[in-house]
């Protein structure tokens, strides 16, 4: 009998549903809210929750129609439990619980960041020990995996995530949301001419982006008050090389210390061209395998939730209907719910 897992993702501003059949992706539907949130310069949590509620049933039906699968055929329902926006997460998990109850299917809670890591299995199998560089709008972590479903956080941001920093810096420069795309574009046209701080430049694997963000905001405001013109391409280049350089420096040190065989990128910021190019370039003459996720699974999607859900199904890691969301769920605590 085929193993068919339906995955639901609603942690931020994408309502997504995907279906995996015997490890093969047969439906992957994403309804994005970016056009709505762009006018606010960032995600508005209450609006995101309402749009998830409006779209979830439609996206579920479209995924089932695309896969030519009926709800009765499913082996289990996998759903993002956290981390993410609490209201947005609730929409997804309530939908999953309803389907689980009505069709008597196991309910599988999935950690959002673990899903991003396992999205790399759409490219090739994971090789251990590996280092996962998890970078997104809400998270910046270095995670060591010695085996499947074995997550050890060796470093994380102490304040802002790198993706959030991109959005705030883009906003002060008058660039559109999400900030990663325009900054990445302009950085290619500029030079690293602005001297910026390099927070937490120490022996730890932790990160700090609040000081970098504040420094740029203050600098831009001061220049505007003096009537000076900000060179957008140069500032984008200076910021990007500083922000991504912090990640690269610490990640490469971790590669050596933990003797990893593979490095994988995960999360929305893994779509950044400078990060993708530099991690491959810096590890080119080593025995470390580098896995770059395809662009379609860098942003939030349910394919990664269904993919990891399929593995968790084999582990019988099921939850009962009393489960709730956890916006601050830690990846190394993913079995506790």
SS element count, helices: 10
Q: List the secondary-structure elements in sequence, H or E.
A: EEEHHEHEHEEEHHHHEHEH
Number of domains: 2
Write down the CATH class of the largest domain: Alpha Beta
End-to-end Cα distance, whole Å, is 29 Å
Low-confidence stretches: none
Write a concise synopsis of the structure shown.
The chain is α/β, with parallel strands linked by helices. Helices cover 40% and strands 18% of the residues. The chain has a five-stranded mixed sheet with strand order 3-2-1-4-5, with helices on both faces. It has a five-stranded mixed sheet with strand order 8-7-6-9-10, sandwiched between helices.
Structure description:
- This protein is of the alpha/beta class and 337 residues long.
- The protein has 2 domains: 4-117 and 298-333, ATPase, nucleotide binding domain (Nucleotidyltransferase, domain 5); 125-292, Nucleotidyltransferase, domain 5 (2-Layer Sandwich), CATH 3.30.420.
- The protein is built from 10 helices and 10 strands.
- The protein has helices spanning 34-38, 45-67, 86-103, 112-118, 162-172, 180-187, 210-225, 232-257, 273-282, 303-314, and strands at residues 4-9, 14-21, 24-32, 76-82, 107-111, 130-135, 140-145, 152-156, 262-266, 289-291.
- It has a 5-stranded mixed beta sheet with strand order 3-2-1-4-5, with helices on both faces. A 5-stranded mixed beta sheet has the order 8-7-6-9-10, sandwiched between helices.
- Helix 4 (112-118) crosses helix 10, helix 6 (180-187) crosses helix 8 and helix 8 packs parallel to helix 9 (273-282).
- It starts with a strand and ends in a 23-residue tail after the last helix.
């Amino acid at each position: 009998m085929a193993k068919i897992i339906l995955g639901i993702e609603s942690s931020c501003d994408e309502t997504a549903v995907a279906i995996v059949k015997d490890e093969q992706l047969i439906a992957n539907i994403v309804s994005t809210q970016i056009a709505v949130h762009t006018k606010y310069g960032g995600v508005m949590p209450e609006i995101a929750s309402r749009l998830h509620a409006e779209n979830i049933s439609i996206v579920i039906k479209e995924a089932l129609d695309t896969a030519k699968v009926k709800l009765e055929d499913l082996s289990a329902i996998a759903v993002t439990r956290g981390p993410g926006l609490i209201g947005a997460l609730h929409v997804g998990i309530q939908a999953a619980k309803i389907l689980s109850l009505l069709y008597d299917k196991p309910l599988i809670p999935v950690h959002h960041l673990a899903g991003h890591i396992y999205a790399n299995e759409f490219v090739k199998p994971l090789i251990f020990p590996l280092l996962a560089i998890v970078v997104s709008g809400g998270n910046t972590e270095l995670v060591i995996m010695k085996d499947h479903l074995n997550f050890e956080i060796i470093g994380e941001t102490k304040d802002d995530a790198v993706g959030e920093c991109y959005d705030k810096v883009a906003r002060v420069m008058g660039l559109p949301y999400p900030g990663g795309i325009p900054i990445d574009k302009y950085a290619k046209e500029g030079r690293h001419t602005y001297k910026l701080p390099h927070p937490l430049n120490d022996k730890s694997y932790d990160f700090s982006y609040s000081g970098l963000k504040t420094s740029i905001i203050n600098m831009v405001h001061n220049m505007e008050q003096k009537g000076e013109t900000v060179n957008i391409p140069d500032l984008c280049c200076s910021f990007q090389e500083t922000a991504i350089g912090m990640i690269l420096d610490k990640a490469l040190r971790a590669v050596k210390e933990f003797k990893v065989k593979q490095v994988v990128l995960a999360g929305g910021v893994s779509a950044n061209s400078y990060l993708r190019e530099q991690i491959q370039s810096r590890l080119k003459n080593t025995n470390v395998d580098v896995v770059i996720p395809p662009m379609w699974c860098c942003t939030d999607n349910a394919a990664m939730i269904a993919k990891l859900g399929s593995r968790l199904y084999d582990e019988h890691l099921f939850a009962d209907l009393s489960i709730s969301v956890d916006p601050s769920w830690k990846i190394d605590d993913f079995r506790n719910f």
